[in-house]
Amino acid sequence: MGLLRFLILALFSGSVHAGFVHPGLMHTQADFTRMAQKVSAKASPWIDTYNVLLSNSHSSLSYSPNPQAWAERGSGCADNSFYVMNDAAAAYQLALVWKITGNTSYADKAVSILNGWASTLKGIGCNASTSWDYWLMAGTQGYQFANAAEIMRNYSGFSASNLAAFQSLMRNVWYPICHAVLPFGLNVYANWDLGCIAQIMAIGVLTDNSTMFNEAVTYFKTGAGNGAAQKVAYYIHPGYYGQCQEAGRDQGHNTLDVSHLTVIAQQAWNQGVDLYGYSNNRILAISEHTSKGNLIDNSTNNFYTVPYVQYVYDSWPTEYWQYTFANGSQGLNRPTWGCIYHHYVNVKGLAAPFTGKQLALQTPENGGQGCCSGGYDQLGFESLTCALDPIPSGAAPSGLTAVFLNGKVLLSWWGSAYATSYVVQRGTASGGPYSTTLASGITDPRSYEDSGMSAGTYYYIVRANSTSGPASNQVSITTGNPLIAYYKFDETSGTSASDSSGNGYTATLSGSTSFVSGRINNGVKLDGSSGYVSLPTTLLNQLGDFTIATWVYVSSSSSWQRLFDFGFGTGRYMFFTTHSSNGSAEFVITYNSGGDSTQKLFISNTTQSSLPLNTWTHIAITHFGTQTWLFLNGQIVNVNNYQYLHPYQIPGSTDLPAQYWIGRSQYSGDAYLNGIVDDFRIYAGCLSASSVQSLASMSG
Ligand SMILES: *[C@@H]1O[C@H](CO)[C@@H](O)[C@H](O)[C@H]1NC(C)=O
Ligand SMILES: *[C@@H]1O[C@H](CO)[C@@H](O)[C@H](O)[C@H]1NC(C)=O
Ligand SMILES: *[C@@H]1O[C@H](CO)[C@@H](O)[C@H](O)[C@H]1NC(C)=O
Ligand SMILES: *[C@@H]1O[C@H](CO)[C@@H](O)[C@H](O)[C@H]1NC(C)=O
Ligand SMILES: *[C@@H]1O[C@H](CO)[C@@H](O)[C@H](O)[C@H]1NC(C)=O
Ligand SMILES: *[C@@H]1O[C@H](CO)[C@@H](O)[C@H](O)[C@H]1NC(C)=O
Ligand SMILES: *[C@@H]1O[C@H](CO)[C@@H](O)[C@H](O)[C@H]1NC(C)=O
Ligand SMILES: *[C@@H]1O[C@H](CO)[C@@H](O)[C@H](O)[C@H]1NC(C)=O
Ligand SMILES: *[C@@H]1O[C@H](CO)[C@@H](O)[C@H](O)[C@H]1NC(C)=O
């Protein structure tokens, strides 16, 4: 084909995007081949779940569909979502039976449902009230219908014009609803976003539209709403337990988040995009936390306790405070764990023990019918569609990280599929030997706290099963409250500031800056309109406990000017402002755009709540475990005893690069710092009050 002809085709056919795999949403042709083989061999669990599928009324050749011209969902609406949900489930289930058996009666039935909706449905919404629930339906049932049509797309009885009509329905009626709401990052619960991400991705594949597919992937990576990767996993606890955004709401919604995340990741994986592994397996972190929190611990006959930090759902103008892992609907039997389990365990070789226990409990599982208040929120049957034979042995433990917390070194790692336990070893030289075995027999959580050693640099590995088992990556950390970065700003010219800690974290000056006489030798002067200093963004990677200490000479009382602001986007950051809205200087750390609003420290018990102008002030923030202290000129001026947010969860990603700035805010509208900064220090670990006092008494 000549280039010109190719271009003309690309312009007019609308579907020349090369490379979409078909069928390529939740299941590929290889998956269907495996299902058919396992079912015909009567192998468990496939055959058991297949039998549940066959006996489900939505898989029946006598199923009676009800296409609607106008589909509504929500209180106050003429809610007919029941028909939408049932017919989407039926179309999918009949399509599955056809692919597994080859019996075209099922294919014809599935096609009649799809054709019925394609010729009947004109719109989705809510006429009579302001309920937005139709948005949920557009997302969840949208991806379900698209999955059914994707399976049917090469059936000879689903003609090219049938497929085109159904593609047109998805593109013109379903897609615009999700497309209209996703970009705004509205502060809705995560499921609202996630259903729409799944829908847009599914319609992109169904209609061979890479713009749509990329829209979904990009939103998942960098979106502003609660469905985006960083926000849906609000907090990563030790051992990589990921607290989902809806964990404190109720377990119906929390487990539905796992279901939606699975659809997004599975569909993307089948198109060669790895969202399962994205941002350090964030989805696995959520699945393990959610599955564990919904399981009974046989040793206590009660639900397992999972770690939880309070979450503030900031639905303006109301804030909902969620203090515990919610017990509403706890232990519900959502048929959702099969695809996620088999991907992580039998494709990646990682451990997913509690996801696996949930899956075992639900197998053989049903579809939408029979679970959960709304019903039909997931397609189900995953131990038929996604189950894989066990791999011979797992990957080595991986993702080992070390951070300072509670005065200890906290290690976390990903486990190895089928490993029975883990061994933690320590050495004093890079590459080993790791001659100190700190612990063995670790099962859960996959974390370890090391303490009591003398100041120095230590190297850790974790092994699966035994001291001779496969080893993880090595991680190193230096104890004894070392300086991580130290900017004396004693230069006289140029646009870089050297790091006197020895770690080589050279800072870069931008905008209008100059080196002037400071508190101790020189300092960096920032002009209040363009000048700031950028620090390397790996600085915080190991900081749970930390100390930041600096001298500042403030020349303006502009609101929100930042002494420093370390974060990414306007969702996750920590900053110190010399002048907040009411005039107080304040330290803030948030993972949720300020939603977690107790995480602030004002200057509280002195007469001076804002920073004095045109004089040198020493500011220090120290943090140990869940306590933070704010120091002004060496005196403690406020303490927060429940500050559960730590800097090490702030570093961004390649998609959301972090910005660590002195003198500039993450929010572009805020004032730049007008003043001089000198002797800016970041320490690993929490300095004592007397150490802070001696920093505050230094002068040049
Ligand atoms: C793909 O979808 C986008 C977003 O709706 C649309 O603007 C574009 O025209 C579509 N491309 C094709 C080739 O249909
Ligand atoms: C297809 O399935 C239906 C219902 O089970 C059955 O009656 C029919 O005989 C099957 N057709 C073939 C060709 O096996
Ligand atoms: C809702 O509004 C749409 C668009 O105006 C219309 O087609 C539909 O018939 C209405 N549905 C009901 C139940 O009033
Ligand atoms: C549908 O796709 C499968 C897998 O590629 C193939 O085996 C089958 O022949 C196709 N059917 C039609 C009608 O194209
Ligand atoms: C609890 O015991 C039952 C019965 O032996 C078993 O099926 C289940 O897997 C156990 N649950 C967990 C979480 O280990
Ligand atoms: C469920 O959680 C609520 C709120 O934390 C609590 O008041 C209630 O006692 C819990 N119920 C049970 C059965 O644990
Ligand atoms: C650990 O031991 C279990 C049980 O013997 C075995 O199934 C698994 O493959 C082992 N894992 C590794 C990584 O060697
Ligand atoms: C500013 O607001 C905070 C939080 O409400 C309060 O603690 C602080 O005292 C206030 N400062 C002034 C100067 O009003
Ligand atoms: C402020 O209050 C804290 C906590 O009560 C106390 O430790 C500190 O000494 C007080 N600082 C001043 C300057 O009064």
For the largest beta-sheet, the strand count, sense and barrel status come to: 8 strands, antiparallel
Overall body shape: globular
Strand content bin: 15-25%
- Return the average pLDDT rounded to an integer: 94
Count of alpha/pi helices:
16
Radius of gyration: 28 Å
In CATH terms, what is the architecture of the largest domain? Alpha/alpha barrel
CATH class of the largest domain: Mainly Alpha
Domain LamG-like jellyroll fold: 544-690
Organism: Acrobeloides nanus
Keywords: Disulfide bond, Lyase, Signal
Pfam family, one: Alginate_lyase
Structure summary:
By secondary structure, the chain is α+β, with helices and mostly antiparallel strands.
Q: What does this molecule look like?
A:
This protein has 700 residues and is an alpha+beta fold. The chain folds into three domains: 2-385, Chondroitin AC/alginate lyase (Glycosyltransferase); 398-478, Immunoglobulin-like (Sandwich), CATH 2.60.40.10; 483-696, Jelly Rolls (Sandwich). The protein contains 16 helices and 31 strands. Strands 16, 19, 20, 22, 27, 28, 29 and 31 form an eight-stranded antiparallel beta sheet that branches. The chain has an eight-stranded antiparallel beta sheet with strand order 17-18-21-30-23-24-25-26, with no helix packed on it. A four-stranded antiparallel beta sheet has the order 12-11-14-15, with no helix packed on it. Strand 24 (572-577) and strand 25 (586-590) form a beta hairpin. The longest helix is centred in the first third of the chain and has 22 residues, at 160-181. The protein binds 2-acetamido-2-deoxy-beta-D-glucopyranose (NAG) (9 copies). Residues 29, 154, 156 line the site of one 2-acetamido-2-deoxy-beta-D-glucopyranose. One 2-acetamido-2-deoxy-beta-D-glucopyranose binds at residues 605-606, 635-637, 639. Pfam families: Alginate_lyase, Laminin_G_3. This is LamG-like jellyroll fold domain-containing protein. Residues 1-18 form the signal peptide. Keywords: Disulfide bond, Lyase, Signal. It comes from Acrobeloides nanus.
